[in-house]
Amino acid sequence: AFELQAQSSTVPGHDPPSEASVKRPGSGWQSMMDTRRWREEVFRDAYADIVDALSNSHGESIPREELNFAELMLSQMFLVEAGSVAEAVEPANDIQAQRKKALLDAASVLMGQPIEDLSRSPLAATDRPDHGLWLALHAIATEDADMLARYIEPAFQGLSRQSPQVVQSVLPVLTEAAIELGNTALADSATAL
Length: 193
Prior knowledge:
single chain; mainly alpha; 9 helices
């Protein structure tokens, strides 16, 4: 059985976040979810900026900032918090609804639970360079060995698109999965990281 552990971390020092890194999601696949957008060293500032933005938000900007907050929590592996915030969001448009689903799906699968309605998940979209990671984690959660064998190598490639906290939590799980699949070359490469 595989389990992911949420990691808590402290921030010894931090630089002020840039406007682009805090306020706006990226474009393309990154607009749904990008855990690398929130660096650990700017966590406190990003947290404060989002809380401030929420207190001054109106209309469609409220769910946007709530989703930013959920993504910030997810990037630091505060999974229960990320899921709770995302669950409470009332999307103002289809893009926000898709982003909400991506964040809920990521929190779920990072906690070892399957993605609900995988066929509709933005994380499974083939234009996401990290989709193999999410599909492999879903395969682990559902104990689908065939699916896991198909996505184990792309899962390791998808780790390069994640925050250090997500990588730290997921790497041991994927390494164990590679070992159980008999992919010793991949497991050896992973243990060398």
